[in-house]
Protein 1
Amino acid sequence: MTPWNSANLGDSVSSIDTPALILDLDAFERNIELMASALKEKGIRLRAHAKSHKCPEIAKIQIAKGAVGICCQKVSEAAVFVEAGIKDVLVTNQIISPNKVKRLFELARSARMGILVDHPKQVAVLLAQARVTGLEIDVYVEVNVGSNRCGVSPGKDAVALARLIAESAPLRFAGLHCYQGSAQHLRLPAERKTAIQEASKLAKEVRDALVAEGMACPRVTGAGTGTFLNECDSGIFDEVQAGSYIFMDRDYSENQLETNDLHFEHALFIQATVMSYPEPHRAVLDAGLKAFSVDSGMPAVWKRPDLKLTKASDEHGVLEVSDPSRIALGDRLTLIPGHCDPTVNLYDALVCIRNNRVEAIWPISARGALL
């Protein structure tokens, strides 16, 4: 924790200490409403991905607006949300550590919990704990539909794994997890559409094979902010796991949109200050690698095409200045993070603003939850 807060309730935006993570509440709320309305119209469930925000306050808003629950990536992350009162959590990851499995089942005493598997050994570890506790959890088979990360290959191995779960009470076979993560940032709509058509084809093959063997497939879940409309229109997916739509980052904004794509607004920003201006065409911000992630490239400077972040060190961000007359020492600048998820994980709190004032400060309670 930092020794003092960057802002207090009621502060003007100009008085927020920097660097600070800022949430534009108006844009955020419009993004929430846009997603909720679109999925309601299509009859598709939203299981909002909380790894993007790690903030129980946001999860509660998403559920109040129609999300059936949340998903996250780590058991420790899930624990934060369950403790905050979230009652339906899917950990979209595999676990093999007996300690993590034990903790997952402890959470199942207070909430409906789900987990992914892609190997029989994972099922065995889960089953052993389920029999000790007598508790049920949802278990999904993760199918590799193109990301080539986790996931069992489509075909007989996926079917066999689903049958193993179904025969391993009190585990519940909950369906298929089919996430094509590498499609989320394909820039052209046609590229994204093609990738999801192939993912949907593979998901359908596994689902149909299960049905052919007399097994129900309760759900096919997956999708992300970049492609969720493609999954919705596939006729295969009945739940999507979008997360970044609430914030939108610089990288997502580089995706080209089709006419029917939804336009989500930038709502997450980093406020920074020009703390050094040693040369006319080089200025330095007080925000660097400890204030924003660069795995997807540098942040952009909001509404300032004359300024470009060219490099960053731990506590410094170096700006290339094309028009020195438009910037001065002490100026406050607003950055759009390149990748929202790891950037959020660098902060203790979101400073929520409306009408140029700090309206709320929401703790990022699951930051650093890596277990």
Note: Residues 189-212 form the longest helix (24 residues).
Protein 2
Amino acid sequence: MRSVLRTASRTPLSVVIGAGGTGGHIYPGLALADALRRAVPAAVISFVGTERGLETRLIPQAGYRLHTVDMIPFDPALGARRYLLPAALMKSGAQCRAILREQGAHIAVGMGGYPSAPAIVGARMAGLPSLIHESNAVPGRANRFAARLTPHIAVAFDRSRAHLPGGDGALTTGMPIAASLATLDRTALRASARAALGVPDGARLVLVNGGSLGAARLTEASVGLAARWRGRDDVHLLIKTGPAALADTRRRLLGTPAVAVPYLDRMDLAYAAADLVVCRAGSATVAELATTGVPAVLVPYPHAPGDHQTHNARVLSDAGAGLLLADADTTAETLAALAEPLLADPVRLAAMSAAAPAGPHARAADLLARHVIELAGKQRELQYS
């Protein structure tokens, strides 16, 4: 057995992570990859995604290799194209099997979303262990399918167990978040963060975060809120629009106390500078808010499968750390009715921050990485026994 372990230990750990589409799947995948690198610096880590999502920018930018496969969404809105899903899964799964062999992979990890399902199918074809991580309180279609192909399941929230095949045995890790957020000291970083983001001295900052691609409803309401606040110097809006709406939004914000940006690559600065966040309720965002303690107005995306964003949002609203606002009710007027009393009441903002249910998210990436390394280690021993 000693010779087996010595031989296996000389073989670099190789992990392929399936993550793509939106930042809600990509950023947790990158947090896991960084945690794996911290634990095993020589590890070979690469990603599988498609050519359509943000992974084509975010993953190479983070320094990791991205392999792309041909896959379509698990989406009933595709109409007749949904009947192509089985064939697409088989094709993309075979592509992933080839990628896993090329990388000498010991394990495949799926972070949810349709780009990650082929990694689990490919691992099954290749006879390799695999693991899925479910980030939402109510699982998406891709992970409900992938959970049937692997016995190894991790979840961010306990309540998602009941919705997954084999969920009773799932490991609750929390949501992997970036190390810069897991250890964020908002008070210590606040002054430099506000200076970096150009927040005027003495102004309260409302961060509007529509997710990695922006959210038209939030952008429209925040533009109206900026117009309402025209001429004020005690409030400031930072609006993340995504790239598509940027030019038009910037034109409409002229003369208001607001700035629009396409992306926020330094979320630690944004959270440290903000007094209040207006946002969707994706699982990654909810985990980040719970960990960093930034008060929030949560506007769940109404078309999320299983209404999972509302379930996510209630993690914060039930604790008193956030307010829930329906998408259909989100206007400049309703935002003002919620935000203006909060911004004028620092005691209430502090109470909301203190109520944030931090949970296990700050250590989730390291916990999930240890589980991945353990499963991969068993595979390495088998290969070299």
Note: Confidence is low (pLDDT under 50) at residues 1-8.
Protein 3
Amino acid sequence: MSKLEKTLLNFWEDQMKQSHTSSNYFFRKSPSHYHMMLLVMSAFKLNEKLSVEELKTKLFKTSRPKSALIINEACEKGFFLLEKTSADQRIKNIKPSESFIEEYNQYLNTLKKISY
């Protein structure tokens, strides 16, 4: 086994050990979970506002009730935060929590390190 293969294997073993508490596990439950994470992180990285309603609309092949359940669960687990807009209190924007941003960046950095 090459050093790269061993590093990759160790990385995935570490991911599986923390799977039930990590966002990594949560966002891999279904394609809809993963797509939601990508949409929220993309908006965050581009410094764009993303409302809950826009997120529900952008999720492909996911019903609005199912989208709402995933959003609520992600918020309950502390991965996403909702904030009301000052212009219209009915509109809630969704953004990643600081702890999720840190976990996401750490995950990306680890993948970058083992891919070189």
Note: Residues 98-115 form the longest helix (18 residues).
Protein 4
Amino acid sequence: MDIIEMTRELGRAIQADDRYIAYSLAKQANDEDEQLQNLISAFNLKRMELQMEVSKPDKDNDKVQMLNEVIKSSYRRIMEHPKMMVYQSTKDAMDALMNQINTILTMCMNGLDPDEIDADAACGGDCSSCAGCH
């Protein structure tokens, strides 16, 4: 099996993982929830309205402030929606899985033994404190 086929196999394994299945179902539930989609649409419209107002040479600062408050409130309602909360937690689990996979692949590309890589190690971005890449 070549490396591309192995990657496809990894993709199939990811799609069979409980975390992916939960994420996929939560995403579908969000997409099918009319109330949530209406909240998201209203949020996006206000965000565009804010962008248009801010880009005006003679912008109305009071309107900008009001739109900012409406956007914050809309965002809060979206994120407090029960289905969005489930989606966010399943997305966080998928992101953690993908970070683990990326950590292993990156460290392998840097010559480390795949069996000795701590998949839960997080990169802080400051290479000076890391022994893994050097």
Note: The chain is about 75% helix and 0% strand.
